[in-house]
Amino acid sequence: MSAIIHAATPNDIAIDLAEAVLAAHEGDAVAALRDVIADACFLHQQLLIASTFISYGAARGWRPKFVRE
């Protein structure tokens, strides 16, 4: 499988990333989904920790969002 560097739409990237994750788990969709969920939980925790150390001024008013809009 070849990696896409430039895609016409964000959906093109999502499809290829999904295929890459599935291929990395040798076609086991349940294992792939568990791994993606574990990564999302880990990154959510890291964002929560980092947000406690970033001052409002240093981030120029930016605050992380923990729920997708």
Question: What's the structural blueprint in terms of helices and strands?
Answer:
Elements: H1 10-24, H2 29-53
Overview of the structural elements:
The protein is an all-alpha fold and 69 residues long. The chain is elongated. The longest helix is centred in the middle third of the chain and has 25 residues, at 29-53. It has helices at 10-24, 29-53.
| Distance separating the two termini | 32 Å
Q: Low-confidence parts lasting 5 or more residues at pLDDT below 50? A: 1-5
Note the total helix count: 2
For the largest beta-sheet, the strand count, sense and barrel status come to:
none
Fraction in helix: 55-70%
Radius of gyration: 16 Å
Mean pLDDT: 78
What general form does the structure show?
elongated
The helix-strand sequence is: HH
Strand fraction equals under 5%
Number of strands: 0
* Structural class based on helices, strands and sheet pairing: mainly alpha
